[in-house]
Amino acid sequence: MKYVSASIVVPVKGNFIKNGVVAIDGSGTVTGVFAEDDPLVREVAVEFHDGVLVPGFVNAHCHIELSHMLGKTDREVGLPKFLSTVMKMRAAEPDEIIADIKRADRSMYEKGIQAVGDHVNTELSAAVKKESPIIYHTFVELMAMAKEDIQPRIDRARDIEFYFEPDRASITPHAPYSCSKDFFKVFRKMIREDNLLSIHNQESEEENRLFRYKEGAFLDFYAEMGLDASAFKAQARNSVQSYLPHLPRNNKLILVHNTFTSLKDVDFINRQGRDVFFCVCPKANLYIEGKLPKILNFVPDQERMVIGTDSLASNDTLDILEEMKVLADHFDHLDFLQILQWATINGAAALGLSDMLGSIEVGKRPGLVLLEGMHNLRLTDNVTSRRLV
Ligand SMILES: [Zn+2]
């Protein structure tokens, strides 16, 4: 048994505790959380740290199999151009891809990340995930615009899903602009109710233009990639309002990015009565589009907010603390305790892991992360993280 204490312990569930003490056993399971004057902890040797102790983070959105693309794409070119670059340049030797997946996995663990929602198109990350101390939920992405592609792509995704731990993998549509209405119709009929969904949503204004008017940079992207755009018709409304009703209604859903989601869209989504989470990936949004989501539109849905890093194709770190700093820096009204909830317990709920991690509570194995260089619980550039457990 180990007793870890810090200047401030933030369990996420419940109030923070000055000089609190966390008892943790050899497996990393929390067996007690105590105030400093608790008679139980006066008797034992306590390891004290100057800093803020928080549970391990949840990275709700990543593509670890793109880790070999670090530094290979230009910034602020907009999503369609970014996508064509990734599609053209992602090919590499499997050994090289796996070596970079391994490096990314280790770095995420060291940065205090305890669980990851990870999108894949291949099985290349399966072996690393199996060995990793991080708990992954793998989303196998599906894209199908032409009718004849629908069934073969679903079959292939199912084959890939099979490489990953059964309870921790599901198949998911990749994005509204890469899936036709016909695809959604087939998809909704064939998935289980416990199949988690995670779809890129309104990452670019071009996506809304495609659905509203059938115009804009996505049409150039389809032409360049030799894709048939005839599946899309002008709908006179934003993308999410067009495709969401076609997604199976009872499946838990993570909407990723939401950079160009309007207040009206948020109302529309909430009226659907779905179990939905909003994931923000601030550094990737700044990298690709140079814009951030209108966070205020979502803040009434606090418990539904989660944070992701996206991939090293659109980010220079896979570090949730760095994403939190960007949010704190750009949105004055968000405080650390709020953002920490998004980065921990909410992400755990989104991935179906809240009974295991996301808060410092008895019976969980959340990991323990020490934040150093923090004053008055403010997230400034000087704050660093260190995994203790
Ligand atoms: Zn993504």
TrEMBL record:
Keyword vocabulary terms for this entry: Hydrolase
InterPro entries in the cross-refs: Amidohydro-rel (IPR006680), Metal-dep_hydrolase_composite (IPR011059), Metal_Hydrolase (IPR032466), MTA/SAH_deaminase (IPR050287)
A Pfam family it matches: Amidohydro_1
A GO molecular function held by the record: hydrolase activity, acting on carbon-nitrogen (but not peptide) bonds
Domain Amidohydrolase-related: 52-375
Entry-linked SUPFAM superfamilies: Composite domain of metallo-dependent hydrolases, Metallo-dependent hydrolases
Record PANTHER family: AMIDOHYDROLASE-RELATED DOMAIN-CONTAINING PROTEIN, AMINOHYDROLASE SSNA-RELATED
Record-given protein name: Cytosine/adenosine deaminase-related metal-dependent hydrolase
